[in-house]
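## retry 2 of 3
previous attempt timed out at serialization; input unchanged, resubmitting
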Amino acid sequence: MSRVLDERELSLNLFVVLARAYNSVTSRTNRDIQSHGLNTTEFGVLDLLYYRGPQPLQKIGEKVLISSGNITYVVDKLQKKNLLVRRASQDDRRVIFAELTEEGRHFFEQIYPQHHRVIMDTVDGLSREEKEQAVELLKKLGLSAETKTAVQS
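## retry succeeded, writing output
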């Protein structure tokens, strides 16, 4: 019985440490994003459009992990800031794409290098080998959790 309790305690400890580490890392990176007048979702949309090009609004929500109702709100905000525009698909007028404006592309190019440095600085508490191990272990943990969630659905 004590083995089960030890395993439960270890699992709980892992969960708490993981949550605290996530909060610490995201708190710092979020402050950097907010210093540029964006929230994390807006930054995620700009990042997606910068690196992947124009995207259908429906796909943006899937890739940035926000609901379809929220994507409209976020795209509206970014459009008011002249960072992106909506364009109807030439193949299917029901599909609307979002794409960066020239101003949006320039803005992202200006802020991303600093954000990248903040990320690098935030995770520099681990060596290269430790980062590689953490990536593999967290992928394994995430995939296991996803599988269990899918089975329960």
